[in-house]
Amino acid sequence: MPRTLPLSRRRLFSVLSAHSELAVILGGPFSGKTTLVDTWLATDPCPEWAPVVIPEPAHDVTPETYWATVASSLCTSLGVDEPVAAEGSFDSLCSILVRHPRPVMFVLDGVRSVEAIEDRVGQLLRLGPQVRMVVTSRAAGSWAELVDGHPHRTIVGDDLAFTVDETAALCRLFGLARDQRTIEWITRRTEGFAAFVAAVCATLRAEKPDRVYGTDALDVLVDSTVDLVVMHVVAADPSLALSSRSVLVSAAPNTVTESSISALPHIDDSDAFLTALTESGLIEACSTDEDSTDGETAWRYPEVVHRSLLRVGSAEYPKELWDARSALIDYWLQRSRPDIALEHAVERRDWRCAIDIVEKNWVALYGSGSLRSLGIVLLELLPDDMTTNDRTVASLRTITRARNKAGEPEQWAFPRSFETILRLGSLRMQGAYDEAMEVCDGLATEPVPNFETLDDTTRHAHGLKYLNFGTVYLLGGRTTDAGTMLRRAHTAGRGVFVEREAAGKLALLEALRGRTHEATRWIEEELRHPPIMGEAEALIRTAGLVATALVALDRLDTGTAFRALSELGTPRHTEELWAAVMYARGRLALLSGVPADGLLYIDSELQHFSHRLTGISAVLVDAARADLHLALGEARAARELVDSSTHPLTAPARARLRLLGGDPGGAEVIVHRGDAAREHCPAVGAELALIGSVASLRLGRRTDARRHLQRAVVLAEHAGVTRPFVGVPPSAVRDILSLGVDLPIDLDPAMAEYGIFREIRVVVRLTPRERAVLDALLAGGTASTIAKEQFVTLNTVKTQLRSLYRKLGVHSREEAIAQAHRLVVG
């Protein structure tokens, strides 16, 4: 479904624009509230107002976290620094609005889970006419109390359904030429729900765009598409996913009351289940009281949703929808809850459906986290008469082992692979990457088959296996092994989602190494594949978008990086590549000159991922946070994060820490270790070489400085990056330019725009004797002359010099003199 539908919903734009104080858009999960607001915002309806758009929060969000997000977004929109105060996040938000009276339009999407949201919105509106609110929610809450009696406030709810004209406009947007009868039929069959109409259009385009459908065929297509959307919404809601059987049962009869809920099987807490149904937006209050009993509140599913639940929950799924059921099963398996899908089939004793789930979709099952329960169902619950069926036996053999080619030995035992993938998925979500890599190491020695000789099913299975292995190695930090496995996955997974996901992760791998040319090639390969409908797209696109942002940042293209990260949004709590997102956001904050904002964002998100702060995730987060602390002059905090690290991705931060802190000798030691070269990270090598050049200059060694700078230029041009040249303090620019090396960047304007690191003035405490020795060195003295002038032995002076060198972080007389001019000596 497109993010914005510019040809639709215009009849509602005037309603939103006319009510200048508050517009509340109420509707269920299929009504297209977010799409409506996105489309309206795309028309730039209020150019004089600063927009603050807050996406739908997690279901378990706390008020403090939510309003902190709003306050941070407000500061970004206004271009002001966030206040540091002891007050709560909402009070901070109010104080910002009072101090900066520019007109602000808040767009708060999906606020049903935010506690006391109506009261808070009311308080914001009371701050004055410079505040405007647009709110979307699935729950009616107490919004009517804020709207009643106010001429410039409104609730939009009943008018969200698509008209026939809007359905026709959306078909044109999807490139579909449909006659008026078909348009009217789709609108009526979906009741105009935006999500259903858009999904039907997408299905028509994916099928045969020019095909003419009869009434029965069109009904089959629309109903099966609606079933997919409804089942996805049920499975995606944490409060309903585990009670999906009861959702199906509750649809018969359509009217839902507290007493009818309490009679449902498998429901221990009927009140909680009814609350989950109402807050999900699946059910709506009846328009009359005739269906209620004993004064109970009566609720009802929208008729199109009601029919869908009855179809899916029926013991005999309509025969005319049997082919469409394969798509429904595939959707459940790949993007939702495979255990629930199979559970429904077994509960209905629909053994044909159960076998189809495994036989046709075992590649998806191969990487799912529910294989154990699926295997138990198949092996223990399948009736005896089914196990003698040739088709069933063939299905089970397909699952349990690879098809044995004539004269070829068996290459892959699927039971072992299934169990391995299950274990890998569990270990990855726990952050136990070392243990996961041990599992992969035990299987990686198996011979690599000739993919061209395999049938598609077996080849795709190998692709999914190598994709899992490559992901484990990537998360564990073994980049070379990750690259090998992901390339195998890309080859073997040709024709399914594995091919695209492998390309995206290869792009991310190369972008982290700073090899932008290779990363760009894989980004283009990933973009060659069309997007996937539903939640699977959000899981697959992360790697490619982060790689796009990192490549752009390495080329000092902050605009492209910002757009990629904005499209990505805040990572979900189940996102495996969350640390890569934090790493890219940290780099963007540095180049944008807002390190405090970047640090606040990363620190606020860490609470959700602390249990997975291991492997490459820990390296990326520590590297990003260390540089942000350095940009703020907080050397101690940076040192605590990376001082004991040996990973090449933290090497620039470690070397920069010493350089900015007045220890050029220590910076050179890190530069000379060669970590970046060993891991094939040319951008990191270029950044280290540049830091080494500045360090050598400060130690008085211009020849070494020139050699380092020439290496930095060669590596940067090889990698196609320019960012390393703005990672040194601006005070070093003159010295770098004086070396006479042609640079791939105009350093003066680049540092003026992107340079953020400043010298950290370190106070070195010397004893009176050490201070006297240093003064004598600065006056041109040697160890012998100092001993004579101070009436001490030569050994005593040498002892004092060693102590002095240690405190200054140097190793020679010349280095000590150069360092003394940069430090605060006390």
Describe this structure in words.
There is one protein chain. It contains 44 helices and ten strands. It has 826 residues and is mainly α. α5 links the parallel β3 and β4. It is globular, with a radius of gyration of 32 Å. The N terminus is likely disordered.
Structure described in brief:
This protein has a five-stranded parallel beta sheet with strand order 2-3-4-1-5, with helices on both faces. It has a three-stranded antiparallel beta sheet with strand order 6-8-7. It contains 44 helices and ten strands.
Radius of gyration: 32 Å
Termini Cα gap: 66 Å
Shape, please?
Answer: globular
Class from secondary-structure proportions? mainly alpha
Q: β content, as a range?
A: under 5%
> Which whole number gives the mean pLDDT?
78
Spans of at least 5 consecutive residues with low confidence = 1-6, 288-293, 320-340, 361-382, 387-416
Keywords:
single chain; 826 residues; mainly alpha; five-stranded parallel sheet; three-stranded antiparallel sheet; 10 strands; globular; disordered N terminus
